[in-house]
Amino acid sequence: MTPFKIPVSTLVRQLQLLLSQLNDADFTTVNPLLSGATLGQHFRHVIELFSVLSHGYASGIINYDERARNGLIETNRTYAYECLSQIEEMLFFPNKPLCLVMNDLEPDGQPLLLETNFFRELGYNLEHAVHHMAIIKMALLNHPNVVMAPEFGVANSTLKYRNACVQ
Q1: CA-to-CA distance for 7 and 41, rounded, in angstroms?
Q2: SS3 of 92, please?
């Protein structure tokens, strides 16, 4: 079991709870607070990065730049919910070395290859998802039918810091 099981499971449940409170229009309507994006597009982005890590685990090669960009995730809340459930399956993968491919970063246009590992990339995905959740939260602050936990979209380190300040 990974050291990220609890925070990733919590993140998945928070996103699923939010999905259950949204209607199709909330999910797919362009939102000016999201720079012309939709909530569904932010969900898709988060889900796809986790999916790239899960699918690249077997080959040992991770390339977030070449993800599929599945439009069904951003337009179908039920499908997005199911995709979130699949993220938890990878939480039982053991750590192992991986190669992260970053396209077009070298001056000659060749991809940059970086040594990494599964736990490092899972941690990256966790923090990246929290960042997108903070953006989603800002877009929904005045939405009358949505209730989010105060820790939704807040990094674990920030929560620990806030708790320390209170004491």
Answers
A1: 22
A2: helix
- pLDDT at 6 > cutoff 80: yes
Q: Where are the beta strands (DSSP E) in the chain?
A: 61-62, 97-102, 112-117
CA atoms of 137 and 89, how far apart (whole Å): 26
Q: Which residue type occupies 55? A: H
Statement: the pTM of the whole predicted model exceeds 0.70: yes
pLDDT for 93-147, tens place per residue?
Answer: 999 999 999 987 767 878 989 999 999 999 999 999 999 999 999 999 888 889 9
Instruction: Give the integer Cα–Cα distance in Å for 119 and 107.
Output: 29
Topology of 5-166 in CATH?
A: Four Helix Bundle (Hemerythrin (Met), subunit A) (1.20.120)
**Model confidence over 72-90: pLDDT tens digits?**
999 999 999 999 999 999 9
By C-alpha distance, which of 55, 46, 54 is closest to 18? 46
Half-sphere exposure of 105 (CA within 13 A, CB side): 10
CB 41 within 8 A of CB 110: no
Bridge partner list, 112: 102
For the chain, the structural domain boundaries read 5-166
